[in-house]
Backbone:
């Protein structure tokens, strides 16, 4: 069982080495200030 | 009476208690911002509701003197005869009341797990009635069958150290049934339903991992070597689940997902739960690895291919993870770890492997059928879903009259 456990961990390490660098997320998150109106900052 | 054992079980009870609010954060981060309070409320409310239900009639039904292997008698209703003296049938070295309150926290978190399936659309009244009915007619019988003295699955030889069948398969299967009975959320598949705050989710996952030490190592019911082994394998399986899910997600989608790491840790914890008192650290690596892969692909299949709106993937993580863990117990269990257990398939115990599969099938069938009946009755009586307009506006404002964020 120890050999199997080592093999499984080795599989993960190899996967990390070959894993791709994905594209950045294109849709930006909604700004949390989106609902603020002009003048709110003075308050 | 042993003071060390008592201290450990009481401490473990507090650890398991923390898991339910932690689950609220885990789920709360996964829903849209208009439903975060309602989602956290599900878990917090259940902590209060089932604590009382358990004291009044839940505990005696689950663990009371056996009635035909099916259910506990009412001898301990209202916690009569449950005091500071040990009950040697369950735990000879701690007060009976300590065992009772430890089990209470399991009864609390199990229905809370289900809430992820019907998040963002279930009527609060229906949720309350469902939770009470489910805890009484589904959780209590299954807990008695598997853990109660005289319970028929316990007599049959089923191994479930800390709740793979009683907690995770029962809740996971019920979640799938609930998702099917309630139907999809308004806009499911057409509009974005991405998690609104993954920091909550990671916080919740971290606290769940912490509390799970009480869940599994506390189930040894003593401060001893068995508890230490359960503690070790719990940590390893959680870690391996996190690493594996994140890796598969990275390979398939191009990013080492934070949500993947958090969900993977929970999947590993679920899978090791039934096995934690019976398997070695090496086996826990295999179990965590299997959980990460199986649960990841279960999510992909259910949500993206079949289109079932189990909103927060309860069946994929708890149902599939629990089934894998329960079967894995029949594969990797060793008498060398726990002489009270059995040898699994890889140690020459084919019989135990079969027993685990039979037990899984029985719990899946009963939990699924009984939950379906309960949901249908409640739907006919008071309706399960909120009106569409309330669902669109969000449950925080329409059901609870409160908002999570004032930004």
Residues:
């Amino acid at each position: 069982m120890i050999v199997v456990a080592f093999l499984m961990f080795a599989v993960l390490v190899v996967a990390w080495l070959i894993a791709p660098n994905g594209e950045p997320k294109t849709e930006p998150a909604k700004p949390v200030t989106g609902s603020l109106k002009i003048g709110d900052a003075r308050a | 009476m042993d003071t060390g054992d008592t201290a450990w079980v009481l401490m473990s009870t507090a650890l398991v208690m923390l898991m339910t609010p932690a689950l609220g954060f885990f789920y709360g981060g996964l829903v849209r911002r208009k439903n975060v309070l309602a989602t956290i409320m599900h878990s917090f409310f259940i902590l209060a509701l089932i604590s009382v239900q358990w004291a009044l009639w839940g505990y005696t039904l689950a663990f009371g003197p056996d009635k035909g292997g099916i259910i506990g008698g009412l001898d301990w209703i209202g916690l009569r005869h449950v005091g500071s003296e040990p009950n040697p049938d369950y735990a000879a070295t701690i007060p009976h009341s300590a065992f009772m309150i430890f089990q209470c926290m399991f009864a609390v978190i199990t229905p809370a797990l289900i809430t992820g399936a019907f998040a963002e659309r279930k009527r609060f009244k229906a949720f309350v009635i469902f939770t009470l009915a489910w805890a009484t007619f589904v959780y209590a019988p299954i807990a008695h069958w598997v853990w109660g003295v005289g319970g028929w699955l316990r007599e049959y030889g089923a191994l479930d150290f800390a709740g793979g069948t009683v907690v995770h398969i029962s809740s996971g299967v019920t979640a799938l049934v609930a998702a099917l009975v309630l139907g999809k959320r308004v806009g499911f598949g057409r509009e974005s339903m991405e998690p609104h705050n993954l920091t909550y989710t990671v916080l919740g996952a971290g606290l769940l991992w912490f509390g799970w030490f009480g869940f599994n190592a506390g189930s040894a019911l003593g401060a001893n070597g068995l508890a230490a082994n359960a503690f070790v394998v719990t940590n390893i399986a959680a870690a391996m689940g996190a690493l594996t899910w994140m890796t598969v997600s990275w390979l398939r989608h191009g990013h080492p997902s934070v949500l993947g790491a958090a969900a993977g840790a929970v999947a590993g914890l679920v899978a090791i739960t039934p096995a934690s008192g019976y398997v070695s650290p090496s086996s826990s690596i295999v179990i965590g690895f299997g959980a990460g892969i199986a649960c990841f692909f279960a999510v992909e299949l259910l949500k993206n291919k079949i289109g079932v709106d189990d909103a927060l993937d309860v069946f994929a993580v708890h149902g599939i993870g629990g089934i894998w863990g329960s079967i894995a117990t029949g594969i990797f269990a060793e008498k060398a770890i726990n002489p009270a257990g059995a040898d699994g398939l890889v140690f020459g115990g084919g019989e135990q492997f079969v027993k685990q599969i039979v037990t899984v099938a029985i719990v899946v069938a009963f939990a699924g059928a009984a939950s379906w009946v309960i949901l249908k009755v409640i739907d006919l009586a008071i309706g399960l879903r909120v009106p569409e307009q309330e669902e669109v506006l969000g449950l925080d404002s329409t059901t609870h009259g409160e908002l999570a964020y004032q930004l």
